[in-house]
C-alpha cells in the first residue's frame, strides 16, 4: 500500500509537471487567435528578411512564431524547432534562407531542404544544419524553388535566397498540418552529416540566432518578438 508520503510526492510531481507544461496552453490559445484572424494581430507578425539587433539570422518567413523550441507538443513530443504561421493560404508566403550555407534536398524530399553551415555564428568552429520544412501542399506537391530540385546536393546559397513557400504537408494527405514553416537547427554528427532532426537532443534552440526571447515559464505568455528596439 502506498504511504501518504509517496502519494504526496506523486501529486507534487504531477502538479509540477502540469505547471511546467501548462504554459503551452497559452501558446495554443494565441495560436488559435492568430489562425482565426491574423489581421487582428498585425503586431504579432514577424517579417521575412528582418534581422533582430545583432542576431546572426534573418527571419526566414512572414508570420506569427506560434511554437518555440522546447514547447510541449503532446504525446511525449517536445518541439525541436520554431513554427511560423503565415495565416495565409498554402503556397503564397515565401520562405528565405536565414543564413548562407550549402543546400541539400534529398531525392525523396517534397517539402524540406537542409542547409549546411560550416561555421556556427554563435559557436564558431562547429558545423550546424538549418532545416526548413512543410514547403508542399497536403498532397505532396512541392513548393520548393525550382532552383533546388530533388537531389540537389551542397549548393551554395546566400542569406535571403528564396527557398519556397509555406505549405501544409504532413505526409498524410488526409491529415495536413496547419500552414506553417518549421525551422530548426540540427547538429552535425561529427562526420559531416546531420543528425536525426526529429530528436530535440540533436537540435539547438533557434531563438538566440533569431533574436527571439528564450522559451521558459516566464516567457510563455509573451508573443515571441524581437526585443531590441528599432533605431
Ligand atoms: Zn514545428
Task: Please explain how this structure is put together.
There is one protein chain. The chain is built from three helices and ten strands, in the order H-H-E-E-E-E-E-E-E-E-E-E-H. A hairpin with an 8-residue loop joins strand 4 and strand 5 (113-117). By secondary structure, it is of the alpha+beta class. The protein has helices at residues 4-21, 24-36, 207-210, and strands at residues 64-67, 82-85, 94-96, 101-104, 113-117, 128-133, 155-157, 162-165, 181-187, 203-204. The strands form two sheets. Strands 1, 2, 4, 5, 6, 7, 9 and 10 form an eight-stranded antiparallel sheet that branches. The protein has a two-stranded antiparallel ribbon with strand order 3-8. The structure holds zinc ion. Zinc ion is lined by residues 79, 81, 83, 182.
Fraction of residues in H or I helices: 10-25%
Q: What sequence of helices (H) and strands (E) makes up the elements? A: HHEEEEEEEEEEH
Mean pLDDT figure: 92
Small ligands present: zinc ion
Shape: globular
> Would you count the extended β strands for me?
10
Distance between the termini: 65 Å
Number of helices: 3
User: In this structure, how is the largest beta sheet organized?
Assistant: 8 strands, antiparallel
Quote the beta fraction.
15-25%
Low-confidence parts: none
Structural class comes to: alpha+beta
Radius of gyration based on Cα positions: 19 Å
Give a quick rundown of the structure.
The protein is 15% helix and 18% strand. It is an alpha+beta fold.
List the helices and strands and how they pair.
Blueprint: H1 4-21, H2 24-36, E1 64-67, E2 82-85, E3 94-96, E4 101-104, E5 113-117, E6 128-133, E7 155-157, E8 162-165, E9 181-187, E10 203-204, H3 207-210
Antiparallel strand pairs: 1-2, 2-9, 3-8, 4-5, 4-7, 5-6, 6-9, 9-10
Residues 79, 81, 83, 182 line the site of zinc ion.
